């Protein structure tokens, strides 16, 4: 049992090329880096994200307003169609003997075409809203990713000095040479 414990303890003292061990440097662990990047992204990207969301909200509200105007136009057309229907019904009373069935067909056609137009406009409004919402979500995701990437690059650039950078390159070259020796 002591040999197993000694082997785990000694893993921390091995060179990093070609082995693994426990990383005791808390500043180079992924969890800390991730929390720092997220904190910086949230702190600096909050205003940009709010502006993007406000702009998207205005666009969506404009789209909804336009759709409501189209809906209002469709309701107006419906009212005109109803007025025309009343006119046709009055004419139907006068011509009931000769053209009753034809007038009824005209009435149904008017109602059906107006209902279809209203359904199409409602569907168009819903599709437009859904499309704009999806587009807003995609743009926000893209902006957040870009901000996080910029923050991560800034953090990396500020943390790496020349000596650490050269040591990292040397260690990576050593790992590549050892892997080349294994494949040869």
UniProtKB/TrEMBL annotation:
Main location group: membrane
Membrane topology: Single-pass membrane protein
Domain of life of the source: Eukaryota
Coiled-coil residue spans: 71-98
GO molecular function: proton-transporting ATP synthase activity, rotational mechanism
Record InterPro entries: ATP_synth_b/b'su_bac/chlpt (IPR002146)
Pfam families: ATP-synt_B
Keywords: ATP synthesis, CF(0), Chloroplast, Coiled coil, Hydrogen ion transport, Ion transport, Membrane, Plastid, Thylakoid, Transmembrane, Transmembrane helix, Transport
HAMAP family hit by this protein: ATP_synth_b_bprime
Annotated function: F(1)F(0) ATP synthase produces ATP from ADP in the presence of a proton or sodium gradient. F-type ATPases consist of two structural domains, F(1) containing the extramembraneous catalytic core and F(0) containing the membrane proton channel, linked together by a central stalk and a peripheral stalk. During catalysis, ATP synthesis in the catalytic domain of F(1) is coupled via a rotary mechanism of the central stalk subunits to proton translocation.
Assembly description: F-type ATPases have 2 components, F(1) - the catalytic core - and F(0) - the membrane proton channel. F(1) has five subunits: alpha(3), beta(3), gamma(1), delta(1), epsilon(1). F(0) has four main subunits: a(1), b(1), b'(1) and c(10-14). The alpha and beta chains form an alternating ring which encloses part of the gamma chain. F(1) is attached to F(0) by a central stalk formed by the gamma and epsilon chains, while a peripheral stalk is formed by the delta, b and b' chains.
Any further remark recorded for this protein: In plastids the F-type ATPase is also known as CF(1)CF(0).
Protein name, entry field: ATP synthase subunit b, chloroplastic
Organism field: Hoya ignorata
Classification lineage: Eukaryota, Viridiplantae, Streptophyta, Embryophyta, Tracheophyta
